[in-house]
Amino acid sequence: MSNTAAIREGAGIQSVDRAVSALEVLAESGWSSGADVGRVLGVHRSSALRLLATLARHGLVEQDPSTAKYRLGPRLAQLAAGVNAELDLRREARSVIEPLADESGETVTLDLLAEGAIVSIDQVARSSSVVSVNWLGRRTPLHCTASGKVFLAFGPDSLRQATFERPLAAYTPRTLVERADLQAQLETIRSAGHALATEELEVGLSAIAAPVRSADGQVVAAIDLSGPSHRLPANKMEALANRTRDAAGELSRRLGFRNAVAL
């Protein structure tokens, strides 16, 4: 990295630090002037006003035209609502995924769709193997994971179209890379109510996933059970698929979904 780039990066980090500090000032003090914020941050009033104006453009703070003072803005409430929704989902899911992990002896994750990829936000591992994979925060593709296929099968047409517009990468010899093959599999998934992925993302790894629905019927998450392929033969996968569907159905009911048939 050049000296110029390093200087710019340092300045950017400092700006972020000051923005966070300004939000903390307003959270503690309520309506505050630019001079008030500048004094706490240790910067000139003009610098504080520029910072507050930038935050205001993004709705993170708002200004009272009559007093020219600032307070926290409505956009923060929207961002917090997203965090609270995820926390509520994780809290409700815990009492569902822990028994599934206990009964199966495998790893169970709660997965979300995030920017065209699958991200695990919670995990319970009860694996009897020495090595356990940590999926938390890891981004994985849609077309070769059980949870990804759940979202492709039960999600909106726009998601499938966006996926099929790009080449499907082969992660193992068993990864489906032909659009027609994957489309046919998605039809099977819709009929079965769950998705399977056998050594499609990693050799030696198999997984089952089922959709979790919100009160309005939208698929908002997937419950995924995964483990070494040698411990998940076809006859065992069928029984575990039923249990995974039951767990996803229970979580869906807890989220307010009342339709017994997930289509």
Describe the fold and architecture.
Helix 2 (34-41) crosses helix 3 (45-57) and helix 5 crosses helix 7. This protein has eight helices and eight strands; from the N terminus they run αααββαβββαααβββα. With 263 residues, the protein is α+β, with helices and mostly antiparallel strands. The protein has helices at residues 3-29, 34-41, 45-57, 74-104, 146-154, 157-164, 179-192, 234-254, and strands at 61-63, 70-72, 107-114, 117-125, 139-140, 195-198, 205-213, 219-228. It is elongated, with a radius of gyration of 24 Å. 31% of the residues are buried. A hairpin with a 6-residue loop joins strand 6 and strand 7 (205-213). The protein has a six-stranded antiparallel sheet with strand order 5-4-3-8-7-6, sandwiched between helices. It has two domains: 3-72, Winged helix-like DNA-binding domain superfamily/Winged helix DNA-binding domain (Arc Repressor Mutant, subunit A, Orthogonal Bundle), CATH 1.10.10; 84-254, Beta-Lactamase (2-Layer Sandwich), CATH 3.30.450.
User: How are strands sequenced across the largest beta sheet?
Assistant: 5-4-3-8-7-6
Q: What is the chains' assembly state?
A: single chain
* CATH architecture group name of the largest domain: 2-Layer Sandwich
- Provide the helix percentage: 40-55%
Overall structural class, as computed from helix and strand content, comes to: alpha+beta
User: In sequence order, what are the helices and strands, one letter per element?
Assistant: HHHEEHEEEHHHEEEH
CATH topology of the largest domain: Beta-Lactamase
| Euclidean distance between termini CA atoms | 52 Å
Rg? 24 Å
Number of helical segments? Answer: 8
Total domains, how many?
A: 2
Task: Provide mean pLDDT, rounded.
Answer: 86
Shape: elongated
Beta-strand content estimate? 15-25%
Quick one: CATH superfamily of the largest domain?
GAF domain
The main β sheet shows up as: 6 strands, antiparallel
Total number of β-strand segments? Answer: 8
Question: Under the CATH scheme, which class of the largest domain?
Answer: Alpha Beta
| Uncertain runs | 3-9
